Every structure is written in structure tokens, then in C-alpha cells.
Write a sequence for this structure.
């Protein structure tokens, strides 16, 4: 499974998803859209944007249950 997270420096939502990915999908790649005018134009303020296997599956506020669902892992529903 290829997991890619598009982020922006200073984005607190991005930092939260990065922390979750570090635990649940440590092989995930993070891409700062500020390093590319094309990515900046494409994603703008939509970050964080989560891509799994080449398909965008979530953006904005992504909670842990949603992340786990997109990673194909069971969550811990109450």
C-alpha cells in the first residue's frame, strides 16, 4: 500500500495526521506542497490531503477512525 500525505508547513491539521501516520503507517511519505508551485496550485488550502494507492481518499480534518478505515485497518469504535 502506498500512502502519501500532502501537507503545508505550519498546518496543525497536517501535523496531527502526520503523527497518526507515524504510528499506523510508518512507511507513508509526506510531501510539503509549499515546495512545488504545481502542488500549491492543485491543493491550495485543502491540506492535509491523504492519498492511498494513487487515489485521494480524504482531506481537511481527518480523524483516526477515518484514517484507519482508509488504511484498511479495523478501528477501535466505542
Amino acid at each position: 500500500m502506498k500512502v502519501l500525505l500532502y501537507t503545508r508547513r505550519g498546518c496543525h491539521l497536517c501535523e496531527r495526521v502526520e503523527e497518526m501516520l507515524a504510528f499506523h503507517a510508518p512507511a507513508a511519505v509526506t510531501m510539503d506542497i509549499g515546495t512545488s508551485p504545481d502542488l500549491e496550485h492543485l491543493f491550495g488550502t485543502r491540506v492535509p490531503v491523504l492519498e492511498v494507492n494513487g487515489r485521494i481518499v480524504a482531506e481537511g480534518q481527518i480523524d483516526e477512525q477515518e484514517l484507519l478505515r482508509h488504511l484498511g485497518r479495523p478501528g477501535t469504535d466505542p
